[in-house]
Amino acid sequence: MLSKTLTVKNPSGLHLRPAGVLSQTAMKFKSDIIVEYGEKRIVAKSVLNVMAAGIKSGAEITLICDGEDEAAAMQTMTEAIESGLGEM
C-alpha cells in the first residue's frame, strides 16, 4: 500500500470535469485507489463519489493506492492531480 498527500490545484476544485478525469484515470488500474479528504474516504473510480466529496481548490487530500499495480497507479494519479486534471 502506498499513500501520498497532495494539494488540489484546480481553480474550482473537483467539479464534474476534473472528477471525471480523476475517475477515468483511476479506472485504468487494477489497484484500489482511495482519496481521503478530511474524514471522508472516497473510491476514486466513482465520479459521483468524487464529486459528492466537495473537494475544493487548495484542499489537501491523501491518495492511497493498494494492489498489484499500485506504484504505477500512484505515479499516474499523482501526475494527473498535480497537472490540474486537464484544467490548467
Descriptive notes:
This protein is of the alpha+beta class and 88 residues long. The chain has one domain (2-82): Histidine-containing Protein, Chain: A. The chain is built from 3 helices and 4 strands. It has helices spanning 16-26, 47-52, 70-82, and strands spanning 2-7, 32-37, 40-43, 60-66. A 4-stranded antiparallel beta sheet has the order 1-4-2-3, covered by helices on one side. Strand 2 (32-37) and strand 3 form a beta hairpin. The protein is globular and about 35 Å long. The model has no long low-confidence stretch (mean pLDDT 93). Its main location: cytoplasm. One of its GO terms (cellular component) is cytoplasm. This is PTS beta-glucoside transporter subunit IIABC.
Main attributes of the structure:
88 residues; alpha+beta; Histidine-containing Protein, Chain: A; 4-stranded antiparallel beta sheet; 3 helices; HPr-like
Give the topology:
Elements: E1 2-7, H1 16-26, E2 32-37, E3 40-43, H2 47-52, E4 60-66, H3 70-82
Give the N-to-C terminal Cα separation: 29 Å
Please state the oligomeric state of the protein chains shown: single chain
User: DSSP strand (E) fraction?
Assistant: 25-35%
Strand order of the largest sheet: 1-4-2-3
Could you tell me the number of beta strands? 4
- Rg over C-alpha atoms, rounded to the nearest angstrom: 11 Å
- CATH fold field value: Histidine-containing Protein, Chain: A
Regions with pLDDT < 50 over 5+ consecutive residues? Answer: none
Largest sheet: 4 strands, antiparallel
Count of helical stretches: 3
Give the full name of the CATH homologous superfamily: HPr-like
Write down the secondary-structure element order: EHEEHEH
Structural class computed from helices and strand pairing:
alpha+beta
- Rounded mean pLDDT is 93
Total number of distinct structural domains: 1
Q: What does the overall shape look like?
A: globular
Helix content: 25-40%
CATH architecture title: 2-Layer Sandwich
CATH class descriptor name: Alpha Beta
Protein name: PTS beta-glucoside transporter subunit IIABC
Keywords: Cytoplasm, Phosphotransferase system
Subcellular location: Cytoplasm
Organism: Lacrimispora algidixylanolytica
